[in-house]
Structure formats: structure tokens, C-alpha cells
Amino acid sequence: MAGIVDAATLKRSEKVFKVFDLNDDKMISNEELAVVFLSAASHRMGYRIKTEQLEKVVERMNMGKNGEITFDEFLQAIPGNATEFDASVHRKASVRNKFSEAEENKTYLRGIFNQYDADGNGFIDHNEATTILKSFGFEEKEIDKLIKDHDTNNDGKLDYEEFISFWGHTH
């Protein structure tokens, strides 16, 4: 498991494993493994796997023995840990993964913004912000300060960019 260094990657790998463990027997067959590597799951981790690379991973693991792998074996075979992929492949995958996560975060934040922009006018006013923050246990005085600190153009409301800064200081 040398290539997996953080909990987020491990959690993501567990999800990928579960998706392709179709019969929930805690094993993935050779065919399922090929689907994992050549599918969107591999792309989700930032990898663009070639069939030849997949064949080398399967060959190295000697998958012909029983035709199935456990989660621990899967972790050894995933692109981040397989020796068939050189450092440049891992570096590119890491960059792709970071861009993918950034896009997900932007989509998430836009959804939060839209959710709290109750009147849909493109701004979060003092009343909308108060409703949000009181539900998280903030006091009126704290709310006033947060809004003042993040309302950079002093118009009494938060636009999307101001909201991103505001949200980062409330969570």
C-alpha cells in the first residue's frame, strides 16, 4: 500500500472496490478488475490507463491463480501502487485528481450558495445569512461581524465570491 498515503485516497479506493464487487463477496474478478481500470473509476482517480498497462498489472499479480482479488490485493494493483506506472503517470494523475476535486468543490459551493440565496437574486443578504448561521449556533453579534468582514464591497450583502470566503470561515 505504499502509494496510498492519505485517508481520502483509501476511502475513494474502497468506494471503487465496492462498485465493482457486483456480488458483494469481497472479491473482484479479472473481468471486474479490467472494468475498474478501463472505466470512469480510473479516470476519477486521475489515471488514463492503457490496455497494455492493465495487462502488465494483471500479469504481475498472477491473477490466473483463482481469478479474483481481495481489497488488499486491489490496493496493490490500483494505479497509484502498481509499479507498471512511472512517476510521470502518477504526477499527471495527481494533478488531474486535484482539478477534479476542485471542480467538485466549486459545484458543491455553488449549490450551497444557491440554497441559501432564498430569494434567488444572486446575493445572500443579512437575513439569509442570519438564517444560515443561527442554524449552526452562531450568535447575532458573531453573524454581524462575519458579514461585515466578508462583505468586501460594503453593499450589505454577499455575492458569490464573498460567500466563498464567508463560508470558509464558518465551517
From TrEMBL:
SMART domains recorded: EFh
Superkingdom classification of source: Eukaryota
InterPro entries noted in UniProt: Centrin_CML-like, EF-hand-dom_pair, EF_Hand_1_Ca_BS, EF_hand_dom
Record domain EF-hand: where: 8-43, 49-84, 104-137, 138-171
GO molecular function, one term: calcium ion binding
CDD domains, per database record: EFh (cd00051)
Keywords: Calcium, Repeat
Keyword Calcium among UniProt keywords: yes
Protein's name in the database: EF-hand domain-containing protein
